[in-house]
Amino acid sequence: MVLSILVAGFVEGLIAGIGYRVGVSPSEGGISRFIFKSFCQAIAGQTQFDCWNYYWMLWVLVIIVAILTFFFTIFKAKDWRVGLFLYLLGAIPGFLLMFMVGH
Known about the structure:
- This protein has one domain.
- The chain is built from four helices and no strands.
- It is mostly helical.
- It is elongated, with a radius of gyration of 17 Å.
């Protein structure tokens, strides 16, 4: 259980670091939003379909799922404070690893 929380935090830190470096989060939600935003920009003014409303609904859904995933991960521990500590203990090195690459 401890290792799974650390690994989840580390992977999320890596994803956040990559997203910070390249500007697009490599998670499935980030890629979906990027593709859908590009699609909306491509068809803007060509049709009466307003895909920006769908884009924002997708964005809100991705945020809600990310928050739920975070909470379910930290509550794997018996005490949520320990889970949060372990998650951050994995996330910070993962983020710093990606942040420092190329510097």
